[in-house]
Every structure is written in C-alpha cells, then in structure tokens.
Design a protein that fits this description.
The structure is a single chain. By secondary structure, the chain is α/β, with parallel strands linked by helices. Helices cover 36% and strands 28% of the residues. The chain is globular, with a radius of gyration of 18 Å. The chain has eight helices and twelve strands. The longest helix has 17 residues. α6 links the parallel β9 and β10.
C-alpha cells in the first residue's frame, strides 16, 4: 500500500523561549493527510496558527515541534532541516517574500535547482525553461534578469513564487496566503499559474493557506480545513469555504 504524500500527525508547535518570555504553544494537535494530486485549503482567523503551520512544515528554526510528527511519503521528516526538506521536494511560497539584493532571478533559480536536483544546471537550459514558463505565467522575459523581489510589486513577488514552484518541480507545495494583497487580475494569474503547473505535474499536492473564498473559486480544493486557536475544528468540501464566506468564523469558535 502506497503511503500518503504528506501527513501531519497530532502536531504541537511552540515559539522558542525569548529571554524572560516562556515558549507559547501555537499549534495544539493538528492532523491532516494530503494525497498525491490533492489540493487542501486551510482557513482560519488571524492568530489561529495558519502561518505557523506553514513555516513549521518547512522546518523554520523560529518554532519548536513539541509533539507529533510530519511524514513525507511515509518518512518521518520532523527533525529534518529546512534545506533537506527543500531538496526532497517540499516547497513553501511565502506570504512576505524576501528581497535578495544583487542576485538575479535567473541565478537564484539556477542555484536552487542545482541543489534540488543534485546536478549543475546550464544557464542556457534554464533560460529556455524560464522563458517558456514566463510566457505561461504572463510574465515579461526581462523579469529573469532582475534581482530577486527587489522593487517588485506585491503581484510580481507572488508571481515569482509561482515561477519558482514551476521550475523547482516540488512534490508538495505549501502556499502561505499567496493571495494576500492581490487585486483580482493578479489573483487570477497566481491561480492560473498553479493550475498550469498541475497540468504538467498532476501528482503535485498542495496546502493552500488563505483567508479568501475567491482563490478557492479558481483552485477548487478537494478539502477545506478550518483552524481556530491552533486546532483544526472542522474539515469538509468546498462548501465549507462558502459557509465561512457567508457566516464568518464565529460559529466555529
């Protein structure tokens, strides 16, 4: 029997102790399973633990897993570092992508892809692949020569995250509020980009962290999970997102 693509098993996560401040438990037993080809949406009010979960799944050193496990294709990766998880095929699209001064998008992706695949990528090969994907993602080809996220608009930063996801070919993608701050047109481009990647890689699994029903209208998730105060309080189909849109989170608290 094939193991699920990605499993989160009773995960408890706390902040690190900071001076006189003791650790604070943020995730209080999160459990969910993502199979190949599935899109799962995670929704919840501010402060519910959504971004903490996203960061913890990629092994952020800002948090400590105090109980539970994270499994990737049946392997326990709870103790793996972020770099090892990334090389294995776990991808995180950040809510607030960082600027990397002096490093072009092309060079950044060449280094990242070489590390991911374990082989040295030629600039020409990567440039051709980038040009193809930029056309599919409605991005100007000059974009690849710009420094990573430097002077980018909010929409350009999010498109760059989707471009990285296309080029790096992860097995599981975690999108941490990729739709935040986007207008309708930029949102459509991001959603279309995810769908374009899934055309090429139908086995790709995704966990989409979002506040908004409008992104899910495009992505049509297989399951929607509601997280409140560090726990998933309800899971269901796409109709659950519609219920949240209409009724808010009060009924789940």
């Amino acid at each position: 029997m094939t193991a699920p693509l990605f499993e989160i098993d009773d995960l408890h996560v706390s902040t690190l102790a900071d001076g006189n401040q003791p650790p604070v438990e943020i995730l209080k037993g999160v459990t969910l399973t993502i199979n190949e080809g599935e899109i799962h949406a995670l929704m919840g009010p501010n402060g519910s633990g959504k971004s903490t979960l996203a960061s913890s799944l990629l092994g952020s050193p800002e948090y400590e897993v105090t109980a539970g496990r994270i499994l990737f294709r049946g392997d326990d990766i709870t103790e793996w570092g972020a770099d090892v998880r990334g090389k294995a095929g776990i991808f995180l699209a950040f809510q607030y992508p960082q600027e990397i001064a002096g490093v072009s998008v092309l060079n950044f992706l060449r280094q990242s892809l070489s590390a991911r695949k374990g082989i040295e990528m030629s600039v020409l090969e990567l440039r051709l692949s980038l040009m193809e994907w930029m056309e599919r993602l409605e991005m100007d080809s000059s974009f690849m020569e710009r420094y990573v996220n430097e002077g980018f608009s909010g929409g350009e930063k999010k498109r760059n995250e989707i471009l990285q996801m296309a080029i790096l070919e992860p097995e599981i993608a975690i999108l941490d509020e990729t739709d935040s701050g986007l207008d309708i047109d930029a949102l459509r481009v991001v959603a279309t980009g995810v769908q374009e990647i899934r055309k090429d890689r139908p086995a790709l699994g995704a966990l989409v962290v979002t506040h908004y029903q409008r992104l899910l209208d495009h992505l049509q998730p297989d399951q929607v999970h509601v997280i409140v105060d560090g726990k998933i309080v309800q899971s269901g189909g796409a109709e659950l997102a519609l219920q949240l849109e209409n009724d808010g989170y009060e009924s789940f608290q």
